[in-house]
């Protein structure tokens, strides 16, 4: 990357970091207690800014923010949203910054991933007939495979297969999860 472009990117990222986080914090602090969904959506936006624009990468800040959002959902009885955040935490543990394709870069990530996959696994039995279940099955199948729990991984992969929904209806990253599971259990 040419030096001029690199300098421009640094400047843009700094502006995004300063302006976005301040604006998001101001907006979040102006919300009423009952504006739960708006608060959580804006907190998730904030996590996105931290993930992609704040250097150096700080797993603990991202984790704490996601755990706080999950707690808000749980406190308000929004179980499906809480499960999704537990799975997002597992996904963050499994990100390129924390996992090199074969091993976790630090023990903290694998331990947190185990905890949040287990929490999602425990809560998923409380959900019946929700379209989010299909995505959750696929994600839990992949995360359990990474955690070397082939029994649970195969169980969730089979649950996804039993839904008879094409993986092509999902985002590319979920399609990749499907292909990894399909190839592993073929």
Walkthrough of the structure:
The chain is mostly helical and 186 residues long. It has a domain at 128-186. Helix content is 74%, strand content 0%. It has eight helices and no strands. It has helices at 3-30, 36-53, 59-75, 79-93, 107-124, 132-146, 150-162, 172-185. The radius of gyration is 18 Å and the shape is globular. The chain starts with a helix and ends with a helix.
Brief sketch in words of this structure:
The protein has 186 residues and is mainly alpha-helical. 74% of the residues lie in helices and 0% in strands.
List keywords for this structure.
single chain, 186 residues, mainly alpha, globular
Secondary structure layout:
Blueprint: H1 3-30, H2 36-53, H3 59-75, H4 79-93, H5 107-124, H6 132-146, H7 150-162, H8 172-185
Summarize the amount of helix as a percent range.
over 70%
Q: Shape from CA axes? A: globular
The ordered string of helix (H) and strand (E) elements is HHHHHHHH
What's the helix count? 8
Query: What is the straight-line distance between the termini?
Result: 42 Å
Class from secondary-structure proportions: mainly alpha
Mean pLDDT: 91
């Amino acid at each position: 990357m040419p030096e001029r472009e690199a300098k421009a990117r640094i400047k843009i990222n700094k502006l995004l970091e300063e302006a976005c986080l301040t604006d998001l914090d101001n907006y979040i602090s102006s919300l009423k207690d009952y504006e739960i969904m708006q608060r959580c959506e804006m907190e998730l936006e904030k996590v996105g800014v931290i993930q992609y624009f704040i250097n150096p990468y700080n797993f603990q800040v991202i984790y704490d923010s996601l755990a706080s959002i999950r707690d808000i959902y749980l406190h308000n009885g929004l179980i499906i949203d809480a499960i999704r955040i537990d799975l997002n935490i597992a996904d963050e543990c499994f990100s390129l910054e924390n996992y090199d394709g074969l091993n976790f870069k630090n023990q903290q990530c694998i331990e947190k991933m185990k905890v949040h996959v287990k929490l999602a696994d425990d809560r998923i039995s409380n959900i019946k007939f929700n379209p989010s279940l299909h995505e959750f099955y696929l994600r839990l199948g992949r995360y359990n495979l990474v955690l070397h729990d082939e029994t649970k991984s195969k169980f969730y992969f089979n649950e996804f297969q039993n839904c008879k929904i094409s993986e092509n209806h999902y985002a590319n990253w979920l399609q990749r999860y499907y292909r990894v599971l399909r190839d592993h259990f073929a």
